[in-house]
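Q: I'm writing a short explainer about Acyl-CoA thioesterase 2 for a general audience and would like to include a description of its predicted shape. Could you first generate the structure from this sequence?
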Amino acid sequence: MKTTQELIELISLKKLEENLFEGESSFMGSPNVFGGQVVSQALYAAYQTVPADRLCHSLHSYFILPGNLEIPIYYEVDNLRDGGSFSTRVVTAKQENEAIFVMTCSFQTKQEGYEHQEDMPIVKQPEELMSWNDIAEQFGTILPKSIMRFVLAERPLDFKPIEFINPFEKKDYDNFSNVWLTFHDVPDNLPLPVIHQLIAYSSDYNLLSTAIKPHASKANFGNTQMASLDHSLWFHRTPNLQDWILVSNESPSAKDTRGFTRGNLFNRSGELICSVSQEGLIRPIQKGK
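A: Of course. Here's the predicted structure. Afterward I'll give you a sentence or two in plain language.
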């Protein structure tokens, strides 16, 4: 999967009956289904059940079981309420009759009101930075295979980290990260629900890696079990997918094998478009277990 159009096709589920949809998965460098895929597909399913003038403003979800790449995922949508301005849906993703994921999402008709936003951090521009692939080429002969599989997996996104981490320096880093992301070959005039689904897909990147940075002298992808436990996303303004988007994350806490990360996404023009938060498992792997 190399292009944004291919990603849109992956997210676009097959309708089986009223409020029931079926989706497939794509390998993204991990043996399990990528969490962002499930979030975006669940959001697609919910969008099919709300009035056309209502747009998602927030979603809150839990990852219950790892998804199996080899079998379909079924999405069941429950209509909790359609009010005068808001609609609420619950989406349950299942494989082999077991729930692997659940999401509550809220939709609202557009309304004018008070407005403010946090300023975008002052950072290097993407043209000044190396991409994940550039970094992999520089270190590719000595990086562990598990990291290379993840970094070099075909994806319709490109990432350029601002704070470079040398995987061979045994040191801890600050508890924040800033990364530029962009989508490949974005079609023109995408509907806002599709843009929301693409942002939901991308929002699951760079969260666990931020939570692990303060422990980088000891923790890495080889000796630490990592998995998303929950995921929340708020849509504020219209994302510009034709340009780079800044993802600015911080991890204020890690405790009891769980790391918490929150972040903001900005258009390059400085508009705050989304906010995200996630708690993830960062459990040291015990030798012999």
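A: For your explainer, you could say: Residues 4-111+126-284 form a domain with the Porin fold (CATH 2.40.160.210).
Q: Perfect, that's easy to follow.
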